[in-house]
């Protein structure tokens, strides 16, 4: 349910994960947390370990995403991309010899 405690926890994890990914990739984000701040504060007040659980989950998610950034590009599939055969060219009309 949007706006509930579970949603606030998910948003906290997502925002922390985004911050971790941005920091790792050298991206300076433009973020607006005001919409979520109240619900995050409520979660943090009710559970003094919530920040640690959120950071742990966010770190795992960021590591998962960053593994794709570090992975080498996949090998091209034969017949696709640069090694694909050239498309057949339409036949050129031959000049007429009748005159």
What does this entry look like structurally?
The longest helix is centred in the first third of the chain and has 21 residues, at 5-25. The chain has a domain at 5-71. It is elongated, with a radius of gyration of 27 Å. It is built from three helices and no strands. The chain has helices at residues 5-25, 34-46, 50-70.
The tally of helices reads 3
Shape: elongated
Helix content: 55-70%
Question: Stretches where pLDDT falls below 50 for ≥5 residues?
Answer: none
Q: What is the C-alpha radius of gyration, as a whole number of Å?
A: 27 Å
Termini distance? 83 Å
What order do the SSEs take from the amino end to the carboxyl end, as H and E? HHH
Averaged pLDDT: 76
Q: Tell me about the biggest sheet? A: none
Class by SSE composition: mainly alpha
Number of strands: 0
> What portion of the residues fall into strands of 2 or more residues?
under 5%
Keywords:
99 residues; mainly alpha; elongated
Topology summary:
Layout: H1 5-25, H2 34-46, H3 50-70
Helix pairs in contact: 1-2, 1-3
Summarize the structure.
This protein is mainly alpha-helical and 99 residues long. The protein has a domain of 67 residues. The chain is built from three helices and no strands.
